Amino acid sequence: MNEGVEWAMHSCVNLSWASGEAVTAKRLAAFYNLPTAYLNKQLQALTRAGILTSVSGPKGGFQLARDPRNISLLDIVVAIDGPDDAFRCMEILKEGPGADARADYTKVCVISQAMRGAELTYRRELASRSIADISDEVVRLTPAAPDNTRNRFANLKS
Amino acid sequence: MNEGVEWAMHSCVNLSWASGEAVTAKRLAAFYNLPTAYLNKQLQALTRAGILTSVSGPKGGFQLARDPRNISLLDIVVAIDGPDDAFRCMEILKEGPGADARADYTKVCVISQAMRGAELTYRRELASRSIADISDEVVRLTPAAPDNTRNRFANLKS
DNA sequence: GACATCGTACTCGGATACTAGATGTCCGAGTGCTCAGGG
DNA sequence: CCCTGAGCACTCGGACATCTAGTATCCGAGTACGATGTC
């Protein structure tokens, strides 16, 4: 899995604490000491997926496009890592004996079904957790986190 | 995910129908028109993982090392794709404000927890399905499959 | 005729190239602020 | 003093290198069969 997924999730949580202000890729990257240009690339992907909105120019930056409750972890994974399943059925059964060239072995093959089923539970789990859930849990553990984040962003403004 | 996982699973199911005879990588590859040497590499990985046993020389080949009921799909995924989770927590929080260098953010980070939880359900699902389960299901749908496979192997003996 | 030994053919095993995708970087496109100039 | 417009500084956006890991291949190690020669 793409490493940018982790960056994107943390950045989205931080953005949920930015109280509506646009935050630049530069500051988001400085927060965790990440390469700015590469993080920017991931943020672009989130923007294309409709998770973030972006504004160019001075006072520009990124912010969440919708309520954090409506942004699931799956949304982020799909945006960064693509919609394809990890297990790709290449339909090798079509080369085997008694194969039906018209059949869709992605659906018919029992192994493909089992793998798809497992990935489905995985995705359901990720779809059931939103950025807001993550934020709430973090706040429960360390209530000062949002303020710390805002202060950090303020200090990075120099 | 490594493409060899699919090959390995189909080959294990076929081996479960080989009635104890060793099958060469050459024949297993010819079955689905796969590159022999590369499939051999995957079979080696299965052997190292203790899923298959291998014998060199004439009348050599591969066979299942244990009862198909005790070979889960997860075993195969781990053998081919490695034991690492897809999501690797790089502990970027250690670069953030108020970080504790001694803490293990793989365990502490809420995002890491959520991702690990999702992958856990995924692995549980795969661990609950054995090669024997797959075989049974295939036989239920097409009872002639094992015989077809044995015949195919016999015809490939030339 | 029977046995032992050598040779041979066949298969697994790991070391070695090749290639695609992830990682990382750079420059152009777009936008709001600032400041100068004129009314 | 206020308004207008051009310049500028800053940021996003996508095109361009680099590098790891998956893909593919080849040759050596190991083993059983069979042929051959001898007793």
TrEMBL record, chains A, B:
GO cellular component: cytosol
InterPro entries, A to Z: TR_Rrf2-type_CS (IPR030489), Tscrpt_reg_Rrf2 (IPR000944), WH-like_DNA-bd_sf (IPR036388), WH_DNA-bd_sf (IPR036390)
Pfam family for this entry, one: Rrf2
Superkingdom field: Bacteria
Molecular function per GO: DNA-binding transcription factor activity
Protein name as it appears in the record: BadM/Rrf2 family transcriptional regulator
Organism: Kribbella rubisoli
